[in-house]
Design brief:
Blueprint: E1 2-6, E2 12-18, H1 51-59, H2 68-78, H3 86-95, H4 100-114, H5 124-143, E3 148-160, E4 167-179, E5 183-191, E6 210-212, H6 217-220, E7 230-239, E8 242-251, E9 258-264, E10 267-283, E11 289-297, E12 305-319, E13 322-338, E14 341-356
Antiparallel strand pairs: 1-2, 1-6, 2-9, 3-4, 3-14, 4-5, 7-8, 8-10, 9-10, 10-11, 11-12, 12-13, 13-14
Helix pairs in contact: 2-4
């Protein structure tokens, strides 16, 4: 996956490249003593949270937003003894700045309360078999992917400091074609509903955050043997009605080809290699990844980009009367520090109108009329769910 970012507030241009984001399928899960990730959360670390306790913790977030991770961890460790009512949902949205991760954690706590057996992890051998089936299914599907055309609707935002108080600065419409023989190609259709000028193309000259590679490479490369990724089964979840197993993975910096680049004036000035780690949500029935998340690790000290992450949700879509698993939405976030000022950028991306792309058609000939009209509810993408907070490792008993 390749991301280019031009700060809206300054001339600096920031680029985030994930060149050949590869991973090797490990024949065994990473050992607990070696994994960089905390162990799965154990339930019932103390009595379940009462409604009064939860609301009290929720009200503290306005003054101490950094406490959100602790609140989520408390919910996951202890569970809840109260219903998740519409009124409580509204209160959470108000007091958390409309952050969906707390609601998502509460929903998971409700599922655990109602069916603790279904929410438990399977045996390690079963989890390993599921991961192996997923590897084969993912790589097999990538080889059979048809040539297709899709439209991206992108809302681009930025925030100063590390506040995540996102302010939208434009909306883009992008046509994307994919061919097995040539990969992805992009065409800028509109900016804020207006046709682009001749010098505005989707890439470095456009400015702002742009991304490529969300389709086939970002997912299939995770299971390829270049980067020696370690996987660990860590949790269960229900995603869009599908029962999933969550695996965490890491690609160490010495095996990584994920490159962060920074420049100005439309040209690249600095580059550095980073490691990356993340999570995948695997459907227990279809053996396919329904969500992928990653974040950059081991970024060189002093490099202008200090953080980079992405999330991609996948869904089944019909192309030429056959079902294929392709992106439904994505979120790309970066943080940079330049001349003493920190800024964040965020792209929220919807993928709409997948269809077969004929061999005789060129992306330069594609226009808005080649896609179905947007439905009203799709004109404003729902705020994507943020990355779940990595859970704290349970304390080992004293010998």
């Amino acid at each position: 996956m390749k991301v280019i970012v031009s700060s809206i507030a300054r001339v600096a241009l920031i680029s985030f490249f994930c060149l050949g984001m590869g991973a090797i399928f490990s024949t065994a899960f990473a050992q607990a003593d070696n994994t960089p990730f905390p162990q799965p959360t154990e339930l019932q670390h103390g009595p379940p949270l009462t409604n009064q306790e939860f609301v009290g913790l929720l009200y503290q977030l306005a003054k101490r937003p950094e406490e959100k991770a602790k609140l989520i961890d408390e919910i996951r460790k202890r569970g809840i003894d109260f219903p998740l009512t519409p009124g409580l949902r509204s209160l959470v949205a108000t007091k958390s700045g409309n952050d969906p991760s707390i609601i998502r954690t509460l929903e998971e706590a409700v599922r655990r309360k109602e069916n603790p057996v279904a929410a438990s992890l399977p045996p390690t051998a079963e989890g390993l078999e599921l991961l192996e089936r997923t590897r084969k299914a993912t790589l097999g599907a990538a080889e059979k992917m048809p040539d297709y055309l899709v439209k991206q609707q992108i809302i681009r935002s930025h925030a100063f400091g590390q506040s995540k108080n996102w302010a939208v600065y434009d909306r883009l419409s992008i046509a994307v074609s994919y061919r097995q023989s040539a990969g992805e190609d992009y065409k800028l259709l509109s900016i804020n509903g207006m046709p682009p000028t001749q010098d505005q193309t989707y890439g470095m000259k456009l400015g702002g955050t742009t991304s490529t590679g969300e389709y086939v490479t970002a997912l299939s490369d995770l299971f390829r043997p270049e980067s020696h990724a370690e996987f660990q089964m860590v949790d269960t979840d229900t995603l869009r009605g599908r029962r999933t197993i969550i695996y965490e993975y890491e690609v160490k910096k010495e095996f990584s080809r994920q490159t962060l680049g920074w420049g100005d004036g439309g040209s690249l000035k600095q580059q550095t290699i980073s490691g990356y780690r993340g999570r995948i949500w695997v459907d227990r029935e279809s053996n396919r990844v329904l969500r992928l998340e990653d974040l950059s690790t081991d970024i060189d000290p002093g490099f202008p980009i200090t953080a980079a992450s992405k999330m991609i949700d996948y869904e089944w879509v019909a192309i030429n009367e056959q079902e294929h698993l392709l992106p439904l939405r994505a979120v790309v976030e970066l943080t940079d520090r330049y001349k003493g000022q920190t800024e964040q950028t965020r792209n929220e991306i919807l993928f709409r109108g997948y269809r077969k792309f004929g061999a005789e058609v060129k992306i330069i000939d594609v226009d808005e009329k080649d896609f179905p009209a947007d439905k009203p509810e799709e004109s404003e993408p729902a705020r994507p769910e943020t990355k779940p907070v990595l859970k704290q490792a349970p304390k080992k008993p004293n010998p």
